[in-house]
Records
---
Amino acid sequence: MSGNKSIRYNFHNFIGTNKQVDHTEIVMKEKLATLSFSDGSPSIDFPIFGGTIGPDVIDVRSLYAKTGKFTYDPGFMSTASCRSNITYIDGDEGILLYRGYPIEQLAEKCDFLEVAYLILNGELPNKNQKFEFDDIVTKHTMVHDQMNFFFRGFRRDAHPMAVLCGVVGALSAFYHDSINIHDEKSRDIAAFRLIAKLPTITAMAYKYNMGQPFMYPKNSLSYTENFLYMMFGNPCEEYKVNPVIARAMDRILILHADHEQNASTSTVRLAGSTGANPFACISAGIASLWGPAHGGANEAVLKMLDEIGDVKNIPDFIKRVKEKDGQAMLMGFGHRVYKNYDPRAKLIQKTCHEVLEELDMKDNKLIKLAMALEKIALEDDYFIKRKLYPNVDFYSGIVYKALGIPVSMYTAIFALARTVGWIAQWKELIADPEQKLSRPRQLFTGSKRREYVPFAKRK
Ligand code: SDX
């Protein structure tokens, strides 16, 4: 148990701001929203709240009590499920801010742990805070040794996302001292553990697939260098991390770190609203991210490019997409919020070129195909009319491919980066006095009450 004691010592001495910025920015507007009915029922007023930026919201919490009616909004097209101080997106302008800072500046100037600190704590760290944060994360990258046996229960060809769902959920069976969600310190410890251990677990999932030995983390390396080392190193020889590749991977992690109330984050919040422990909530987020309409799209982009095969086949593929022929879809394109270029896609495209240059792969067939596909789609009326632009998943897969990472690992790397956002959003949820159990209602369209019919009398 001495290991556990030293963990507690380190966590308890952490001097970072370690506080969520409090919710002081919500403003009740003087005007009200009035709901009127055409059948002569009395109209009802609802308050309107404004945030610091972005659209105002109509507070409909009292709607059911006042009218006996629900709102109907499948897919949450017009619903703000919470208030949050973490990430802001202007989808029409293609703007993304983490805690107010533009993604372009953070991707250019920060390393991943600096951004992780910012997302978690609300402020950029000073020198001491950064040193301490990095130190705590670095010193908790190792997983409980019994985890090795846990991995061995999976088939060797298990999808890494299936492994991540299971192993991250299982962390709650290994770290009992960080599942008390009502204790702030315990929540912080869980946050550190998740951020520190996700690269180790993700690399273990890869090594297990490959049939290679797990690599223990190396504390002399940075967060991202360590991840690359655990992925590509082996115990037989020295592995030197290429700094250009490490920087590219670090930037990709920054670009994936948070994205306000996307499907997986909303899943984490929904699970969190029940009081479930943080490891279980993040595991739920991983499951939600896996879908091809969400984080699974980076894997799907590569499969799509493989299927197209050659620039000359693009027109036929685009035709099938436009005719909605079967499953054909331009993966890595379109977004619920961005009706403009996803700023992350631009940054990943730049990173992609840097990596291909470094690896002497400038004439890479895949990148040429992707760029030709992007150009044709951006000039096509179908995509223009629907405001469909490349999203974060369009180019990331090409970078991973150039690095020799198998396609099945792409969404797992997304999950590793997004863990920071998930845990920050989960902590914000737990600290928010307005949050309640998430329990949507429904418009019921099934059978009305009817009486049971015994077998013998059924037709
Ligand atoms: C991520 O929310 C987030 O923040 C997510 C994310 C994050 O960081 O967390 O940004 C990460 O999930 C990125 C998205 C990755 N997914 C894909 O690349 C899959 C391909 N994209 C589509 O499935 C789609 O664009 C969605 C799911 C991303 C968004 O879908 P919406 O907002 O529900 O829009 P929709 O499906 O109603 O589409 C509107 C129209 C439809 O055509 P019509 O019925 O009007 O004729 O656009 C068409 C759709 O058929 N359309 C596409 C298309 N995306 C939308 N047509 C062809 N190819 C596409 N990719």
---
Amino acid sequence: MKILFAASECAPFIKTGGLGDVVGTLPAALAAQGAGVAVVLPKYRGIPREWKRAMHPRLSFYVNLGWRKQYCGVETLERGGVTYFFLDNEHYFGGESVYGKGEFEGERFAFFCRAVLESLPHIGFAPDVLHCNDWQTGLIPLLLNTQYSNLPGYERVKTVFTVHNLAYQGVFEWAGVRDLLGVDEACFTPDAIEFFGKASFMKAGLKFADLVTTVSPTYAKEIAGDEFGENLGAFIRYQVREVAGILNGIDNSDYDPKTDGGIEANFCAEDFSGKQACKRALQEEMGLNPDETVPLIGMVTRLTEQKGLDLVECVFEDIFFRDVQMALLGSGERKYVDLFNWGAFRYPGRCGVYIGMNEGLSRRIFAGADMLLMPSKFEPCGLTQMIAMRYGTLPIVRETGGLADTVAPYNEYEDTGYGFSFTNFNAHDMLFTVDRALGFYGDRATWARLQRRAMAMDFGWGSSAREYMGAYEKVLSRAQTTAEERYAGSAEEEQR
Ligand code: ADP
Ligand code: GLC
């Protein structure tokens, strides 16, 4: 079975969030299960030079985009049993940042979708399944279905579309999409890609993929409703026959406190002395008072509304009324940057803040903090809570999406669970839950027991990779019956 991933980010080459981690680790896990796997992504300017130097130019071709022809270079490299294809076009991917704004963003990824499909006859990798991820790749299933399905080499290719975050939908002017890609007018209806008068790349993926998946079982249910459906709940209920929820995994060998070379000292569930050393080093690095006994709450997060930062803002001073320290690493919206910078000023020695992306520091926080606070408003899966648990850092989360699926709350009566969680999006519910965690932190034996439990959980890719393999097989077996199914469908329709 051959799987080609198409995505807008992939670690270690380029990453802005969890999508990059998933596309950076799932392919290798599938390869370990025997699949042939490749990944295609844009060759952004921001990819570090060492990786660019490792790429081999393979070929180039021209992509028809409206009345223009655009250059597309293909460069490759091999890593961990996976082949990576980088699509090169300076005009679209030569800018300072991975993502941008405005209609040009739509044109960039319209180009990418077209170029991925056009590259298939040239790259020497003929996929059975094209696995698309998020809105940036949403037009691939649409184009494949409406423009390529009868062309030699494309007839049997199936598509899987994974929603990593329904909140980002890629909505652009229809005239642009139609003119650039020649998308049929018939697709511009509310039950296909029309969305409040514009064209939605997300709807294109949801509607035309052979299988839709999302990154946790709970989020799969949530997005079909109105609260988390981002104005697409009804569309998902009526137009998508199934949304499979397959939980993300993390790379257990990369995130391993026993061997991680990027932390102050290694440690394991039997001996936490190394974790204490990590905490002391983190306090020093972030300008926090050197005190091992004070509970240290870590946050590693994009600074956006999704992450529940409004709850933190609401009770910020109440949190610091308690005897705690906080270490925050984040980047994103101005108002949250201002909030935490103000916090660092207001509580010197107790609130340490680093604004920006910093992979090394993220690990040092996962290893050195006692708790990880993640009160998300919604969370398709969330990786940071899983990484934190690997390092014996107990999560305090809101019960939504993948947080509900990965964090079993501690129940002191039955002595089960290893984290702390609350249900309502309410700042005082969060504060109460922080207080519960602080209470148990004071009970060293209990805390260590919960840490050991969290560290014993397996959040690796093993079982989820098997689920993906099953999903691909299902989609491919459907392939042979599609024509019959269509026939049966229309016969039923006639009978009615
Ligand atoms: P999301 O994709 O919604 O941002 P996830 O929890 O799925 O959330 O994944 C976030 C990933 O990005 C994790 O690997 C996390 O460590 C990383 N990350 C988030 N913010 C930063 C930052 N400021 N610096 C370094 N890594 C970060
Ligand atoms: C998105 C989601 C996050 C998820 C990640 C990887 O960025 O916000 O919850 O873990 O994608 O699927």
